[in-house]
Design goal:
The protein has twelve helices and eight strands. It is of the alpha/beta class. The chain is globular, with a radius of gyration of 17 Å.
């Protein structure tokens, strides 16, 4: 585990410096980081950009920032609800990176405070299993689960999007140990917490469809003592802040 590029103390480091240089998104991120360097004294910019660019979904019409954490029901919320059901125009780092960059550049404290910010989190061990089966389904990895966990630093460096997907959830909800979002829902209580989001936004509730789901057994079946401990160490802040247990 000595070569892991994220640790409980530092979170996920600037993975853009360690990933393949021909990755289009990471090339764009180099430019984004350079452009925003002068804005880092603003804590909300640090929250969005450190330790790397997160995955915020910004809606200027409804004034919300959805910190879309991978493998927490985000496709159902973002694509099926915000885009297809409500038809909202949003900014995000996948579809419109540089418009998102311009929005971040224009942030002020007043503007940031005027947006409703929310995220959903998930049990780190369960999320790791989902992450593994997601990339297996895409054909990007073909190793046993145990090897994936033990060699996670290798896959984070070499598999496109694995870095962002493996980022601890607390990196997208907290800064310097303090919450930076107004509501933190849980994947384990997805529908009820999503309804609470709808209530805050003043939008109609919808039963969330199952989108981009992976098919696997209960997460506890995939771990041995070593891999269980690795996840506990890597995601110790998630476990501490959100009270998750292996059970």
């Amino acid at each position: 585990m000595d070569d892991l590029i994220f640790t409980p103390s530092s979170g996920l480091r600037y993975l853009s410096n360690r990933m393949t240089p021909d990755h289009l998104f990471m090339r764009s991120l180099y430019t984004l980081k350079e452009r925003l360097g002068a804005y880092r004294e603003k804590e909300f910019v640090r929250f969005l950009m450190e330790p790397m660019l997160k995955a915020p979904v910004v809606c200027e019409e409804k004034k919300f920032v959805y910190m879309k954490i991978a493998r927490t029901g985000g496709t159902s919320i973002y694509r099926d609800y915000f885009q297809e059901r409500l038809g909202l125009q949003t900014l995000n780092n996948r579809d419109d990176l540089f418009r998102l960059m311009l929005w971040i550049e224009g942030l002020t404290r007043k503007k940031w405070d005027g947006y409703f910010k929310f995220a959903f989190v998930r049990n780190p061990w369960d999320r790791m299993v989902s992450l593994y089966f997601y990339f297996t389904k895409l054909g990007r990895i073909s190793c046993p689960f145990r090897d994936f966990v033990i060699n996670l630093s290798h896959y984070v460096r070499t598999v496109p999007e694995c870095a962002l997907h493996a980022m601890p959830s607390s990196c997208q909800t907290h800064l310097d140990g303090k919450p930076c979002v107004d509501l933190i829902g849980r994947y384990e209580n997805l529908q009820d917490d999503f309804n609470a989001v709808c209530g805050r936004l003043g939008t109609p509730e919808m039963e969330l469809p199952v989108s981009a789901a992976t098919d696997h057994d209960n997460y506890t079946a995939y771990f041995d003592d070593e891999t269980r401990g690795i996840v506990a160490e890597l995601y110790s802040e998630d476990i501490r802040l959100f009270g998750y247990e292996f059970k």
